[in-house]
## 1
Amino acid sequence: MATSSEILTTAKQRGQTDQLPYAGAVTPGEAFALLEAEPAVMLVDVRTNAERDWVGRVAIQNAQHAAVQWSQYPGGVQNPDFLAQLAQIAEKGTPLLFLCRSGVRSQHAAKLATEHGYNNCFNILEGFEGDKDDKGHRKNINGWCKAGLPWMGA
């Protein structure tokens, strides 16, 4: 298994290679390894409260897990208090791993946070549920759940 330093180096290299507007990107497995090794790392779940309640959520230490909705349910309207809520749970130097369903909203969250002074923002590739399979179901192709990482179902 790679060290935290090696994981962060790889994540930052992805950021440079892909010209990401935030520090970088980690796989679900890399994210979990960082969380296990580094108590200061925080996972920020940007899915809606409904998604976390009805689909499930990561099962990690509470001190390393926070929920700040990127968009609100119902309606999908962007959360106007996103940055204020983020400021309540993390300082600007905190390494932040943003998670959503499939890795899209978390990219937007990482970008916005970076634009506002959070300089250690990483997107968790594939998200919690991952991509849809040929039958339209998630959790079968990739993502946190498919990787066998700890999560609690609804």
## 2
Amino acid sequence: MSDGAALTEGAVGHTVLSIDAMGGDLGPGAVVSGLSQAAAQSPQLRFIVHGDGPELERLIAKKRGLSDICEIRHAKGVVTMDAKPSHVMRNGKDTSMWSTIEAVRAGEASVAVSCGNTGALMAISMIRLRKLEGVNRPAIACLWPSRNPSGFNVMLDVGADIRADAEDLLQYALMGASYARNGLDLVRPRIGLLNVGTEEHKGRAELKVAAELIDRVAPAADFEFVGFVEGGDLPSDRVDVIVTDGFTGNVALKTGEGTARLIRELLTEAFKKTPFSRVAALLAYTSLRRLVKRIDPRRVNGGVFLGLNGTVVKSHGSADPTGVAAAILLAAQLSATGFHKRLAARIAQSEAAATQAIQQEGSSE
């Protein structure tokens, strides 16, 4: 579709996603290839693609049928990975990232997807979409492979803000519970607070206060608080949602991804070492493929910004086409379930229930 075409969900009757094509480490080629992969799996998708118009036209034209479901929005500026969020907020209106968020703000697309600078993306999202009423600090939630029936746990925050006080952690618990209900179809999610141990006396003062707050509001907010959890519980079936500050969450996320890559590389080396190991690899091929797929970080690529008046999915900057496609398909799933509206309603309901529970607790003391 040419620039300026009326590509909105109301006009075309399909899910429309807004895509920043310029922010990733691998360039727009990887993003366009990811678009093509996602479109092949979900034919109902339509895209507004933001970036260098001539280059995007050339790349999209190479993918059969992709030009029919894409509208290109030319943006001459690019937010680099080392750009300061404050500078982007003042000078970034001509960038592909800004244009991507603007399409969601205008109601032209339901979800925005970007591989770009996380801090800048959060800053633009906050200034253009604004925070939901009652939310102090938005959070980034990611899916973590686990032994739960769904195959995943939810963890937040994984990088929106390195600090979080007790009230912020309570709010993360409420948002994480809502995400688990909508994204994993869990009726009563189990919430755990990440700490250096499960004992009540361990951890920083704000963690102890947060644990008391979360435990107090859990019945009213309709989730189960399992208490403190440790790093080893992240992939377990003991919990559905892990709550932590952005600094700890981001370190845990990057550590997990690096470990998954290391295991995959070591397995490859081990099965190539001798003729006998190559034969063993052939015999175990199906099982190995299943394992590699299960621990592949690209399969769960995409952190969701929670607490905003709009849905934004942040893909890894280094994402290849497979990773980009995973982020796009996650965005499509969130759009199809009406995630943003359901999250806003749930947060308002949970905040009211939490406030009432705290007031009742205070009056009874």
